[in-house]
Amino acid sequence: MKIAMGQFAVSRDPQDNAATCISLMQQQALAGGAALLVLPEAVLARDNADPDHVINAAQPLNGPFMTALRAASKDNALTTVFTLHVPTADRKALNVLVALRGGEVIATYDKLHLYDAFNVQESRRVMPGTQIPPLIEVAGMKVGLMTCYDVRFPELARRLVLDGAEVLVLPAAWVRGPLKERHWEVLCSARALENTAFMVAVGECGPRNIGNSLAIDPLGVIVARGTEAPGLIFAELAASRLAEARSALPVLENRRFAKPELEAKK
């Protein structure tokens, strides 16, 4: 399966961001022959001087942003994955991962683990999800869905792989900071290696976030990466490599722990 990772700096204008997403979907990813395009987290709107803008600009899934992207995807088989904020009651929002194909939303996932760390409190305006993400199928491979801070919680990746995932995708907006790029690379590589699964992790770039998108194979080898700048990065995910890795390193068969379950909401 050929995949594309489209990293860019999200602006405060949803129309501009929709145009960027559509350009990556139609002009570049399709021209490159990708079956799966992964975009960053929170692609609807961002203003680094106004942290609440991402919530104040939130739109429903039938709003103009998603309507434009659905129309752009209608006549092709590309699967595109990203997140956007969807409004809820009390001026809050859900951080919703969307998988889009053929003009339709084929899956959604509300982010479970909210980024309350390193002096950031995502939960101040965002509600956590309550359901394990679904799997989707792309080009004959099972794909598990995660979002940004989820990568720090190995239980979710393991659960998705035990549910059948062969590829893990992770839209992200990984904030810059001391050792943060090291955290990003180590965590993404670990989730791939410990689960013998491909990892496709795509980061927003710009002054706040690191970019540095990664495609990692089931033995933890980085096979493609982005820089700190906007770009479209391609990689091939081979089912034969997955089979070789799981034969040589049968950790899924050798494990002694039960399948992780989601803790009831407190």
Automatic annotation (TrEMBL):
The keyword Hydrolase applies. GO terms for molecular function: hydrolase activity. Residues 1-239 form the CN hydrolase domain. Keywords: Hydrolase. The keyword Cell inner membrane does not apply. Its EC number is 3.5.-.-. Signal peptide: none annotated. Belongs to the carbon-nitrogen hydrolase superfamily. NIT1/NIT2 family. This is Putative UPF0012 hydrolase YbeM. The lineage of its organism: Bacteria, Pseudomonadati, Pseudomonadota, Gammaproteobacteria, Enterobacterales.
